[in-house]
Amino acid sequence: MDARWILVAACGLGAPAAAEPLGEVATLEVLEGWRMPSGQHMAAVRVRLAPGWKTYWRSPGDAGIPPYFDFHAAENMAAVAWHWPVPKVFHANGMRSVGYSGELVLPVEVTPRGTGEVRFAGTVQIGVCEEICIPAMFEFDALLPASGARDPAIVAALVDRPMTAEEAGVGRVACRVMPLADGLRLSAEIEVGRLGASEAAVIEAGPGIWVSDPEVERAGDRLVVTADLAAQEGPVALDRSAVRVTVLAEGKGVDIRGCPAG
After folding, report:
1. pLDDT digits (tens, 9 = 90+) for 145-186
2. What is the β-pairing status of strands 41-49 and 103-112?
3. Largest Cα–Cα separation, the chain
4. Residue 146 burial (10 A CB sphere; 0-12, 13-18, 19+)
5. Kind of pairing, strands 183-191 and 173-180?
6. Is the pLDDT assigned to residue 229 strictly greater than 60?
7. Using CA atoms, how far apart are residues 54 and 206, in angstroms rounded to an integer?
8. CATH number of 163-257: 3.90.930, 3.40.1350, 2.60.40, 3.50.30?
9. How far apart are CA 55 and CA 38, in angstroms?
């Protein structure tokens, strides 16, 4: 089955009738992948972007639009797990975003409900940006075979992931939480070697919690990442085990899970 679609996007923040056509700025393709000995199926979604355009990581920053997948048309599919490659940090008009330019191959590990083919089908909304950011909707419908062959593009994307804390030699991790009038301030102190000359960080604090772009300070092997947190509704209910800090620099990353008190 041909699993490629061309995006014809529209820009503008008003009603659809007032939007101006953008033309073909991105394509989406499902890479069918292969069935692993564990019974899981490794596939991928590939997004190709026109020159000058970008799309976003799972936590895109204030200037981006997070991706949203809906698998309403899927069959023989119990669960999915995404394996995000290391993203880039972009700065424009005084705002920061986190994502990809040129091409994104996003591996997805599918858990089938049973044997046989998996129908990998539904819709995805992503943000695509040049000078402005707009939401773009794709429909996809592909059959993932019960066998299949390893795809070099998927393998390369799996390799291009952030290091785990253990792989990066992360030492002590400790978080301090300070109350604010409308939320919390989280300060994570991390013992980790320098990744590159210009380091950035992203903090994810769980569903329903907005996190500001963090400030990053380094002294030797001690990195301090500080951000403000606010809840969409009511007070912030912070689960320290759900806090995720990703440190980024020069095409490398470190994924740190959990932030105990210290």
Report:
1. 999 899 999 999 999 999 999 999 999 999 999 999 999 999
2. antiparallel
3. 55
4. middle
5. antiparallel
6. yes
7. 25
8. 2.60.40
9. 32
Q: Are 76 and 114 in contact (CB under 8 A)?
A: yes
Fold equal for 4-159 and 163-257: yes
Say which residues have a Cβ less than 8 Å from residue 2's Cβ, sequence separation at least 6: none
d(CA 171, CA 156): 28
Q: List, edge to edge, every strand of the sheet that includes 252-257.
A: 163-164, 252-257, 244-249, 200-204
Rounded Cα gap, residues 10 and 27, in angstroms: 15
Domains of the chain, by residue range, sit at 4-159, 163-257
- What is the reported pTM? 0.88
> Is CATH 2.20.25 the classification given to domain 4-159?
no
Kindly state the tokens that stand for 108: 């997805």
Q: Give CA–CA dist 7/19, Å, rounded.
A: 15
Evaluate the CA torsion angle 190, 196, 199, 202 in order and state its sign: negative
